[in-house]
Amino acid sequence: MLVTFTTPANADITMFGNVALDMLRMMGHSPTVPGAILAADVPEALSRLKAAIEAEKPTSAPADKDGEEPAVSMDHRALPLINLFAAAAKDECNVMWK
């Protein structure tokens, strides 16, 4: 499943469903699809997401295993969504996902 986040203030962001649902939980929101966050609630959701991502950051870099692709960290995966929420907060827009 793919989840697409939309707001008039930014380009759409599409994420894998499991990652998107985890990020919705980090924001303290129900992981239901489709869904929305009203403009008044966007700054709080953004703050919660940033705090949760910061709390999950590893304290050291993982060792590279022979020939394996490095894992993409949650803070790297969250960056486009953080930018979308920041733009929505700045322009006081709702955020929707489907």
Write a compact overview of the structure shown.
The protein has 3 helices and 4 strands; from the N terminus they run ββαβααβ. The protein is α+β, with helices and mostly antiparallel strands and 98 residues long.
How would you describe this structure in keywords?
98 residues, alpha+beta, 3 helices, 4 strands, 44% helix
Describe this structure in words.
The protein has 98 residues and is of the alpha+beta class. It has one domain (2-54, 73-97). The chain has three helices and four strands, in the order ββαβααβ. A four-stranded antiparallel sheet has the order 2-1-4-3. Helix 2 packs antiparallel against helix 3 (74-91). The chain is globular, with a radius of gyration of 14 Å. The relative contact order is 0.28.
